[in-house]
Amino acid sequence: MAKQTVTPYGSWKSPITSDLIVSESIGLGGVIYDSQDIYWLEGRPSEEGRYVLVRRTPQGTVEDVTPQPYNVRTRVHEYGGGAFLVAEGTIYFVHFDDQRLYRKFPYADPEPLTPEGKRSYAEPLLDSWRDRLICICEDNETIDAEPRNYIASIDLNTGKAAPLVSGCDFYVSPRLSPDGKTLAWVQWNHPNMPWDDTELCIGTIDDEGMIRDIQVVAGGKEEAVCHPLWSPDGQLYFVSDRTNWWNLYRLTSEGEIESLFEMEAEFAFPHWVFGLSLYDFVSPEQIVCTYTQNGQWYLATLNTKAKTLKPLDVPYTDIGSIHTEANEVVFVAGSATEPTSVVEMNIETGKSRVLKKATNLDIDPGYLSVPEPIAFPTTGEKTAYAWFYPPQNKDYRGPDGELPPLIVKSHGGPTAATSPRFNLKIQYWTSRGFGFVDVNYGGSTGYGREYRQRLRKNWGIVDVDDCVNAAKYLAQTGKADGNRLAITGGSAGGYTTLAALTFRDTFQAGASHYGVSDLEALAQETHKFESRYLDQLVGQYPDEKEIYHARSPIYHTEKLSCPVIFFQGLEDKVVPPNQAEKMVEVIKQKGLSTAYVPFKGEQHGFRRAENIKRALDGEFYFYSCVFGFTPAEDIEPVEIMNL
Fold first, then answer.
1. How many whole angstroms separate alpha carbon 39 and alpha carbon 34?
2. The dihedral sign for the CA sequence 3, 387, 417, 520
3. Who wins on pLDDT, 308 or 3?
4. What H or E segment, with its residue span, contains residue 52?
5. Cβ contact 569:617 at 8 Å
6. Cα separation of 371 and 435, whole Å?
7. Where are the beta strands (DSSP E) in 160-205?
8. DSSP labels for 278-303?
9. How far lies 581's CA from each of 557, 577, 595, in Å?
């Protein structure tokens, strides 16, 4: 092994550059079969973040099927997902710019199906018996009122949309039975979110195509039902957390609910986005599914008759978007050292092949940090969880007696989760000499309903404590420098970042990516999907307004005493730009070092190559100034006020 150069942490030269990340990486998702053709979505930073539908034929030909300028992305719930359908070669998709549904016949250009207007669509489903699409519609036509959500019928001849099921605040996962006679779906109302209290419903489709005899067959108070799917023989399957864990169930012909396999693991993920597919049928007696346990995802088959689960031997720790065709299953998966890929696998032989990688970069493993799962003590004699990535670069080591700086990552949601997936942005940091800890704080998904509900009425407390205690744990165990601790996060993670910097004195720097600083403003201004989310996380507004003020960093900046950098999309409807701008102004007036990097044309999250690069390099430059090390490469500086 070549001798390592001794250089201060943070100053290591890395081949994993921001240019490399944005030029050689794409996003992958939404994989499906249409007969023997396989389709998936690619998010391309180099094309201004455009989402492109791609087809792979049985002969191995891979081609784009949605040409420029079409961007396959819906704004329903603002987070989107479920933006396309392929049926016998005909493609239906939502174009981001106008949110209309388009239809594309083979070898033809896309043509608009729905009229111009203020409606968005998600999860289109073909009802071939009635020559129509069934989908989720978010209708913004009403002035000065929140959007109206319903399950819609769209006539394939006229494009006319009409409500099929309405009356609830939200709908997801419309599923048509194999005989076309019954529709299933999941619904819920304010102030619940889809991981709180939801209902699984079925309704009969009459001769006019309307939904009659609606029944709630599962869910209700203190139960979150999700991911319904009909089996080939017409039984309705779903996932429920009625026993604390999101496990698989089915509705019997007698109307009883039957457990398929009880396990302290979760077979589902919250419906932040549409179009999720975490299990599918090989036959009426066999399911291919994925589940998460202790923060890691697994692939398995489930025998629905014997009720036995058989894990499959795959080298992946992050798995989703599962679809089957005969004995083949296609899915999106990755691991800590394997990039996210579209993978096809034969269930009988176990043989698999990678059809597309998110990056074709061939990075020497000597530059890759392999995460370690950690469980650490936190407030209230509880345990919290995280993935720790130690600094790793085969060419460098830190000076004797010096400990590395640490970045604590607070994920978004906050009801989301992190898993050990190949993430070049994390490797960007660790290959330069930073430790990095990705925290699954209380409130995260994957550890049962009880763990998920730790955050109820405690946002800004439990999450902050867990991030603080992760940093302290790593400092106390000699894996990080307790005097060089930074915290970073986007969206809800940006709020946790700002709250930790304001209400605790553990961190010496932080970075907020489109984060929340004013909970009251968020309650008043955010979009419909999350407009009552804070009822569960903080308290009822405006009745408990004082709690909103007490936990909002913007009202307590006198407690803030360290540098902060902000990154913000100027078209963000989830967390509007004023959340960052007000905080920057107050910090600047205090005389603390701060920086603000706004991005034109970006919404909630950054999708354009130049902005992803700027945010990554800008945060690194900021830390180099705060922690006093010299980067190994030239980085475009950001303007730091009060430096």
1. 8
2. negative
3. 308
4. strand 50-56
5. no
6. 10
7. 161-165, 170-176, 182-188, 199-205
8. -EEEEETTEEEEEEEETTEEEEEEEE
9. 14, 6, 10
Q: Interior CA angle at 562 toward 556 and 567, to 5°?
A: 85
| 8 Å CB contact between 245 and 263 | yes
Distance, CA of 491 to CA of 502 (rounded, Å) = 17
CA gap 426, 234 in Å, rounded? 45
Which pLDDT value is given to residue 574?
84
Share of the chain above pLDDT 90, in %: 92
Q: Does residue 24 carry a pLDDT above 90?
A: no
What sections of 538-608 are H helices per DSSP?
545-550, 578-590
CA–CA separation, 514 and 606 (whole Å): 10
- On the question of a cis peptide bond just before residue 284, with omega within 30 degrees of 0, the verdict is no
| Domains of the chain, residue spans | 5-17+369-627
144-200 pLDDT per residue, tens: 789 999 999 999 999 999 999 999 999 999 999 999 999 999 999 999 999 999 999
- Largest CA-CA distance found in the chain, in angstroms, rounded: 79
Please report, as a single letter, which amino acid is at residue 515.
G
* 81 close to 88: Cβ distance less than 8 angstroms: no
- The answer on pLDDT for 1 being more than 60 is no
Compute the distance between CA of residue 595 and CA of residue 578 in angstroms, rounded to an integer: 15
Answer yes or no: are the C-beta atoms of 93 and 83 closer than 8 Å. Answer: yes
- The position carrying tokens 């569960």 is 536
Is residue 356 within 8 Å of 341, Cβ to Cβ? yes
Could you please report the per-residue DSSP string of 8-27?
-TT----S--HHHHHHSB-E
What SS3 state is found at 587? helix
315-318 long-range Cβ contacts below 8 angstroms, 24+ apart: 316/343, 317/419, 317/420, 317/421, 318/419, 318/420, 318/421
Pairing of strands 148-155, 119-127: unpaired
Query: pLDDT of 341-395, one tens digit each?
Result: 999 999 999 999 999 999 988 899 999 999 999 999 999 999 999 999 999 999 9
Spatial contact of 256 and 247, defined as CB atoms under 8 Å apart: no
Which residue has tokens 């195509």?
209
- Look at residue 7 in the predicted model and tell me its pLDDT: 96
Nearest to 218 by CA among 190, 252, 192: 252
Give per-residue burial for 475-506: e unless 16+ CB within 10 Å, then b.
Answer: beeebbbeebbbbbbbbbbbbbbbbbbbbeeb
3-state secondary structure 426-492: HHHHHCCCCEEEEEECCCCCCCCHHHHHHHCCCCCCHHHHHHHHHHHHHHHCCCCCCCCEEEEEECH
Both structure tokens of 313: 């031997």
DSSP SS3 for 136: strand
Strands of 182-188's sheet, edge to edge?
170-176, 182-188, 199-205, 211-219
Query: How far is residue 579's CA from residue 597's CA, in Å, rounded to a whole number?
Result: 13
CATH C-level class of 5-17+369-627: alpha beta
- Quick one: tokens of 316? 């992946």
79 vs 99: CA distance, rounded Å = 13
**Residue range 625-639: mean pLDDT, rounded:** 94
- Which amino acid type is present at position 386? A
